[in-house]
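Per reviewer request, we include the raw input and output of the structure prediction for the construct analysed in the revised manuscript.
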Amino acid sequence: MVIFENVSKVYDDGTVAVDNLNLEVGKGELVVFIGPSGCGKTTSLKMTNRLEDPSSGRILVNGDDITRLNKVKLRRNIGYVIQQIGLFPHMTVAENIGIVPRLFKWQQKKTGKRVDELLEMAGLVPPMKYKYRLPEQLSGGQQQRIGVLRALAVEPQVILMDEPFGALDPISRDNLQNELMDLQRRLKKTIIFVTHDIDEALKIADKIVIMRRGKVVQIGTPAEIQGQPVNDFVKDFIGQDRLSAIDADSPVKMIMEEAPLVFKMDHKPGRILDELEDLGYDSAQVLDRNGYWAGMVTIAQVKRASRRKLSLKQVLKVDRKLPVEDATLRDAAVMLDDIDLPIPVVDKDKKLLGLVTHNGIAKLTVSRLQRQTAKQEEGGS
């Protein structure tokens, strides 16, 4: 979809911003450029829509050499999202999203329908609540979301994202990363993404391009980058602590927690509901009469069972579990990203061993940070 062939960018003062970049970004791939400041990652991004022109080499988008295409038409067909968002303050949300459709001379009805579709896709519902607001009436995360929707408005083949979440607080940043990953699973756009945050790159990328002083140092999947760093620079850039600590393929039992609420199959839904509400839990595990895992229930399911006079067995969720023998942290992360509910871990006999939760992964992250801080303090003493 996007191919860089021997692409270099040298400025008039002799500064080499990009040096002989060769890269193929496949259709539907999310490729992240990352590296120290001044490494050439943003320049590479800008050359893709001709905000900068290469000094040599060529860039192909869908087989076309972009230097032979009209700049304005090229940019209209490539979505572009930046850290500063770039929403027009005097325009409503609907007007901001509809800018490119209007340039394509879409009819007003078609544009309005597309705006509603995009707002619904991003969870900004009902659309009527948001479409007539001005940017200043939105949170930073909502503004950034509108910037992403504007880039998607005319369904471009390629989307460029230049540190789009860099100015957000950690919670908003994490939420928008998750939303981007969810959108990408559904839409399969070709995305080139620039970031300075290695954790963000490892989380969202199909492929990572690590650059230094204008040159590509390593290209690979997140697993390849972490498992097979090509040199000391990549090791240091990723972080020695991350490389030596638990990795994504480590066994899931390493972050397993004890299940706080466990009921037998003969418990009444009303009693379970009372305990869930009293203790503030969203779910509980259920064992059969032999003490083996039978399934899990959420508070919503228990309420339904209680309201409709159903048995506990009729509302059990039995497909959400991980086998302790071969499940990994990666497996758990994927499931937690899909649905924010605890994951029961069972053995081959279906004995309940514990749960994996977002809290467990958070503790793992904190322990890594603590180890890193300890190492820094040791080095400074």
